[in-house]
C-alpha cells in the first residue's frame, strides 16, 4: 500500500473523518459511525456504499447507481469507498463479494473465539490490509448488504486487541452487533437515498429551467388564477406581458369566452392539450397568436403556455379570401362577390328599392387585336377607376368577366338608374385611350333592371339586365336600355337568356333526344335511307322544345359547340348499338354550328371522335350554313380538309339566302347544296322561285354537286323538283321528324313512284287526278 494511503487511513482511525466538499454527506456518515462506535465501544467503524461522493454533488452528473454499474465502476478504479471516502488499495473481487454478501460476519482473532464467516478469504484480505497498517485487529464485524432505492450500504466495525467491547458483555454478542449494524446501515442507506433524490430533483429542476429557457417558442407557466408566473427569453421579444400579469388583460373582452373555454378544457382533463387563436394588438396593428395549453405536471397545477405568431397565415388567408372575391386586374369585386351582394340584398327584409346594371364595353376585342392584351388590361383598369368615380356613394361596381361590369345601385328607381347610365355612357365615350400612338374609341352598352323581390333567386334580375344590355348593343351601342317586359324584343331576348340556362341544365342532365327526317331521292335508285339528324330538348313534363327556340340561345351564349358535341357523340353511340341498321343507311346528315367551326377545341375533338368509329364515319354528311361558309371561309375549308380523309361528305345548307355566295362555291368542294326553303315553299306558283331553283340545279350539274330542296310540303312540289333535275327533297310531304329510337331498319320506302308520270298541276286537273295520286 502506498505511503499516502497508509497515512490517510491512520488519520481517519485516529482523528475521524476528513471534511470535504460534500460536507452534509460526510457529516451524515460521521454521525452514523460515531453512533456505532459508541454503542459497541469500538475503536473505529467504516462504511462501504455503492455511491460515490460526486453523486451527491449539486454540480455533477447523476450516475447509474445500480449494483452492476457500481461493480463496473469499482472495477475500473483501484480504490474502494472506505472510511468516508478514504481510499484503501483493493480490487474488484473484494468489492463484488461485499455487495453480494447477505450474511453477518463476526470474526475474532482470539483463539478461544471461533471464527463465524462464510467468506474467510474476504476477511483475511481485510485483516491483511489492517495488519499492513500495524493495527492489532481483535474483532471485525460486517453487516449484510442493505439497499434502499439506488443506495447500497455495507457497515463494518473494528476493535483492537486487549479491549473488552460492549458487545462481548451481551448474552449473544453476534446478534447484538448484527442488529445494531443492520439498523444503522438501513438508516444510513435511507438517509443517503433521500439525499440522492433531493440532489436528483434539484438537478432535474435545473435541467427543466434550462430547457424551458431554451425553447424556441414563446413559453410561460400560468397559475390557477391565469397569471403568468414564469417566462422564457423568447417571450420577452414576442409579447409585452410580464410576470404576474393576467392573460385576460391581453385580450379584447369579446375574445375572453374563447380563452376561458380553452383553459377549461385542459384543466378539467377533457383534452390533454387545447389551443385557440386570438388577435392581440401589438404595436399599431393586430397580430394573431396561437395559444397552446397543457399541464406543466408540477405540484402547483400550473399550465404550460406556448405562444406562436400566426399573423402571416391569417394575412395569407385574408389575401386568398380577397383574391377569391375580387378581380386581380382591377381590384373590383368579382362575379361571385357581386352575386353574393345581390343575394344578401334580395334576402333583406327591408326590401330596399334597388337597380342593377350590366355594362359591356363596345368593340373591346378591337383593342386587344390591334394593340395587344396589355393595352386591353390597361383600358379595363382605367374603366374600373372611372366607374367608381361615376357611381353614387354606397353603390357597387364589379367586374363580371372579360369586358363586362356589374353595377348595384341601392335606393334607386328607374329614373335615377337611367341618369347614372346616361352619365356613364357620356363620360366613357369622352374617355381618351391611346396606346403606342394608336387612339381607341371607348363606349359602353348598359342594360338596367329593377330588383324584383318576388323573383325566386337573383338570376331572374340578372337575366333581365343581361337581356337589356344585349338589346342595347343590337340597337347601335353606346346606349342604355331599361328592361321592360312588355317590349317584344326584350321578351324574345329574355326568353333566349332563360333558354341558355335550360341548355346548360339539359347538357348536364342529358335532357336531349335525337330525331330524324328523311331526305328522299327524286330520280335515283337508292336502297338505303338518306336522313338528317335533328335535335329536341326534353322538358321535365316530357314535352319537347323546338330547336328554333333553344338553338339561337346556344349560338348567342357560346353553347353551340357543346350542343354539337352532344349530337355527334350520341349519334355515333346509336350507330354502334344499331350497327346492322346503320349499314343499311345511305347517308346521315348532321348540322354544325358556325360557332363550332371557329372552335379549335371542338374541331380537335371531332377529329379524334371520328377516328374512334372507322366503320361508321363514311355514312356521315356534315351540314354548315351558307352564311357560316361565306363568313368563315378558312374554317369551312379546314372542315373539308378534316372530313375528306374519313370519307365524310359536306353539304351547304340554306343556299341562296345570301346571293353573293355564288362566287364562293368555286372555293368550296362541297358534295351537296340544300336550297333555302323560302325558294321552295311557293315554287309551283312563283316564277322567280322557279328561276332561282333552276339556276341552282344547273349550277350543281356544272360544278358537280347534288342539290337538295327543303320545305317540300306537297307532291306537286316534289314532282316539279324531279322534273327540273333536283336530286333530293326534304319536307313534311315526305315525313315529319321522328324519334331516332323508333327507327328499326335502314331500308328506304320510295315516296314518288315511277308509275306516276311527271306532269304539271294543270295537266293533272285535266286528267282528273288529285294532288296525291
UniProtKB/TrEMBL annotation:
This is D-glycero-D-manno-heptose 1-phosphate guanosyltransferase. It comes from Shewanella saliphila. InterPro entries: Cyclic-di-GMP_PDE-like, EAL_dom, EAL_sf, GGDEF_dom, Nucleotide_cyclase, Rev_trsase/Diguanyl_cyclase. Residues 352-485 form the GGDEF domain. PANTHER family: CYCLIC DI-GMP PHOSPHODIESTERASE PDEB, CYCLIC DI-GMP PHOSPHODIESTERASE PDEF. SUPFAM superfamilies: EAL domain-like, Nucleotide cyclase. Gene3D superfamilies: 3.30.70.270, EAL domain (3.20.20.450). CDD domains: EAL (cd01948), GGDEF (cd01949). Residues 496-751 form the EAL domain. SMART domains: EAL, GGDEF.
Amino acid at each position: 500500500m502506498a505511503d499516502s494511503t497508509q497515512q490517510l487511513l491512520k488519520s481517519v482511525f485516529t482523528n475521524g473523518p476528513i471534511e470535504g466538499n460534500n460536507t452534509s454527506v460526510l457529516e451524515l456518515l460521521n454521525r452514523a459511525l460515531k453512533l456505532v462506535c459508541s454503542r459497541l465501544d469500538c475503536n473505529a467503524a467504516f462504511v462501504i456504499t455503492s455511491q460515490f461522493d460526486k453523486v451527491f454533488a449539486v454540480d455533477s452528473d447523476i450516475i447509474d447507481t445500480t449494483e452492476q454499474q457500481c461493480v463496473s465502476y469499482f472495477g475500473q478504479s483501484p480504490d474502494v469507498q472506505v472510511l468516508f471516502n478514504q481510499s484503501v488499495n483493493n480490487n474488484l473481487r473484494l468489492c463484488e463479494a461485499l455487495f453480494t454478501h447477505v450474511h453477518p460476519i463476526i470474526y475474532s482473532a482470539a483463539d478461544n473465539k471461533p471464527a463465524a464467516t462464510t467468506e474467510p478469504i474476504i476477511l483475511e484480505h481485510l485483516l491483511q490490509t489492517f495488519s499492513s497498517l500495524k493495527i492489532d485487529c481483535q474483532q471485525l464485524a460486517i453487516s449484510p448488504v442493505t439497499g434502499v432505492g439506488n443506495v447500497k450500504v455495507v457497515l463494518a466495525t473494528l476493535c483492537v486487541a486487549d479491549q473488552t467491547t460492549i458487545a462481548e458483555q451481551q448474552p449473544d454478542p453476534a446478534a447484538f452487533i448484527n442488529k445494531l449494524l443492520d439498523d444503522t446501515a438501513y438508516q444510513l442507506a435511507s438517509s443517503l437515498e433521500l439525499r440522492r433524490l433531493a440532489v436528483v430533483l434539484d438537478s432535474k429542476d435545473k435541467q427543466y429551467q434550462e430547457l424551458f429557457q431554451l425553447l424556441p417558442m414563446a413559453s410561460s407557466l400560468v397559475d390557477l388564477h391565469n397569471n403568468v408566473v414564469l417566462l422564457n427569453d423568447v417571450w420577452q421579444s414576442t409579447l409585452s406581458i410580464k410576470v404576474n400579469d393576467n392573460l385576460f388583460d391581453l385580450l379584447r373582452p369579446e375574445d375572453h369566452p374563447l380563452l376561458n373555454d380553452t383553459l377549461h378544457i385542459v384543466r378539467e382533463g377533457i383534452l390533454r392539450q387545447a389551443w385557440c387563436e386570438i388577435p392581440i394588438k401589438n404595436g399599431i396593428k393586430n397580430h394573431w397568436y396561437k395559444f397552446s395549453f397543457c399541464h406543466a405536471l408540477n405540484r402547483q397545477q400550473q399550465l404550460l403556455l406556448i405562444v406562436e405568431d400566426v399573423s402571416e397565415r391569417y394575412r395569407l388567408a385574408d389575401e386568398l379570401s380577397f383574391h377569391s372575391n375580387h378581380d386581380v386586374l382591377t381590384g373590383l369585386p368579382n362575379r361571385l362577390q357581386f352575386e353574393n351582394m345581390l343575394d344578401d340584398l334580395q334576402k333583406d327584409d327591408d326590401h330596399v328599392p334597388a337597380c342593377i346594371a350590366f355594362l359591356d364595353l363596345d368593340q373591346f376585342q378591337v383593342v386587344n387585336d390591334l394593340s395587344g392584351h396589355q393595352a386591353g388590361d390597361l383600358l379595363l383598369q382605367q374603366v374600373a377607376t372611372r366607374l367608381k368615380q361615376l357611381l353614387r356613394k354606397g353603390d357597387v361596381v364589379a367586374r363580371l368577366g372579360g369586358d363586362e361590369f356589374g353595377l348595384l345601385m341601392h335606393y334607386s328607381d328607374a329614373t335615377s338608374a337611367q341618369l347614372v347610365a346616361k352619365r356613364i355612357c357620356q363620360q366613357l365615350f369622352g374617355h381618351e385611350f391611346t396606346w403606342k400612338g394608336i387612339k381607341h374609341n371607348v363606349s359602353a352598352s348598359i342594360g338596367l333592371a329593377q330588383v324584383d323581390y318576388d323573383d325566386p333567386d337573383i338570376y331572374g334580375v340578372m337575366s333581365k339586365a343581361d337581356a337589356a344590355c344585349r338589346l342595347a348593343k343590337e340597337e347601335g351601342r353606346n346606349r342604355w336600355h331599361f328592361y321592360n317586359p312588355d317590349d317584344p324584343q326584350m321578351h324574345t331576348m329574355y326568353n333566349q337568356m332563360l333558354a341558355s340556362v335550360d341548355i346548360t341544365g339539359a347538357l348536364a342532365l342529358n335532357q336531349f333526344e335525337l330525331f330524324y327526317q328523311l331526305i328522299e331521292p327524286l330520280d335515283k335508285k337508292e336502297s338505303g335511307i338518306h336522313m338528317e339528324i335533328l335535335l329536341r330538348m326534353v322538358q321535365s313534363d316530357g314535352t319537347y322544345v323546338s330547336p328554333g327556340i333553344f338553338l339561337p340561345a346556344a349560338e348567342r351564349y357560346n353553347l353551340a359547340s357543346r350542343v354539337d358535341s352532344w349530337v355527334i357523340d350520341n349519334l355515333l353511340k346509336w350507330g354502334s348499338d344499331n350497327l346492322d341498321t346503320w349499314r343499311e343507311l345511305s347517308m346521315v346528315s348532321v348540322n354544325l354550328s358556325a360557332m363550332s367551326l371557329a372552335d379549335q377545341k371542338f374541331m380537335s375533338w371531332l377529329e379524334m371522335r371520328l377516328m374512334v368509329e372507322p366503320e361508321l364515319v363514311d355514312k356521315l354528311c356534315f351540314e354548315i350554313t351558307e352564311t357560316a361558309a361565306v363568313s368563315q371561309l378558312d374554317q369551312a375549308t379546314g372542315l373539308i380538309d378534316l372530313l375528306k380523309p374519313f370519307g365524310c361528305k359536306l353539304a351547304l345548307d340554306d343556299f341562296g339566302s345570301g346571293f353573293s355566295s355564288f362566287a364562293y362555291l368555286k372555293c368550296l368542294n362541297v358534295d351537296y347544296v340544300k336550297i333555302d326553303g323560302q325558294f321552295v315553299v311557293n315554287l309551283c306558283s312563283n316564277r322567280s322561285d322557279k328561276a332561282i331553283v333552276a339556276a341552282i340545279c344547273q349550277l350543281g350539274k356544272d360544278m358537280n354537286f347534288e342539290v337538295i330542296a327543303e320545305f317540300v310540303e306537297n307532291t306537286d312540289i316534289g314532282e316539279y323538283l324531279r322534273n327540273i333535275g333536283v336530286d333530293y327533297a326534304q319536307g313534311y310531304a315526305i315525313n315529319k321528324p321522328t324519334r331516332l329510337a323508333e327507327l328499326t331498319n335502314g331500308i328506304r320506302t320510295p315516296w314518288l313512284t315511277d308509275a306516276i308520270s311527271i306532269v304539271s298541276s294543270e295537266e293533272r286537273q285535266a286528267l282528273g287526278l288529285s294532288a296525291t295520286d
